[in-house]
Amino acid sequence: MEYSNIKSKDLQGVDVSKEITLKEYGFAYHVLPRKGIYRFYIGDTASLKEEETGELTYIWWEALELPLSVKIEFEFDFIDVSAVARFCGLTKSEWLTLDAPTKLYGAISHYGADNF
């Protein structure tokens, strides 16, 4: 999916800027309550492009749709909750209380986007 195809309205991510959260972090999402899903946009690492400044930016994203009730630790059973929590600087019990988007971003940061 190209950048121009991702709607800005109500897009959430790790930065308030649509451009930064997608191009630099490679992660953003929409909450779609009428459909009962999250639509996650995950940067395709094969699409990383080096800018003139030397920074890498994503130019292509995969869309992943999961139910609003998703438990990331069960949806992706390879996730070692204790390891991801430590990676995020949290205890296992703290990590388990996070919302699904935050858990998914932590797991992607730990395991790499290609695993999702």
Structural write-up:
- The structure is a single chain.
- The chain is α+β, with helices and mostly antiparallel strands.
- It has two domains: 1-68, no CATH class; 70-116, no CATH class.
- The chain has five helices and six strands.
- The strands form two sheets. It has a four-stranded antiparallel beta sheet.
- The chain is globular, with a radius of gyration of 14 Å.
- The chain starts with 11 loop residues before the first strand and ends in a 5-residue tail after the last helix.
- The mean pLDDT is 96.
Structural class: alpha+beta
- Estimate the mean pLDDT confidence: 96
Number of discrete domains: 2
Shape: globular
Task: Please trace the helix and strand order, writing H or E for each element.
Answer: EHEEEEEHHHH
Q: Low-confidence parts, pLDDT < 50 over ≥5 residues?
A: none
What strand order characterises the main sheet?
1-2-3-6
Tell me the Rg in angstroms: 14 Å
Q: Strand portion, in percent?
A: 15-25%
Helix content: 25-40%
Biggest sheet descriptor = 4 strands, antiparallel
Q: In terms of quaternary structure, what is this?
A: single chain
Task: Please write out the topology.
Elements: E1 12-13, H1 18-23, E2 27-32, E3 37-43, E4 49-50, E5 56-57, E6 61-67, H2 72-75, H3 81-87, H4 92-96, H5 100-111
Antiparallel strand pairs: 1-2, 2-3, 3-6, 4-5
Brief characterization of the structure:
With 116 residues, this protein is α+β, with helices and mostly antiparallel strands.
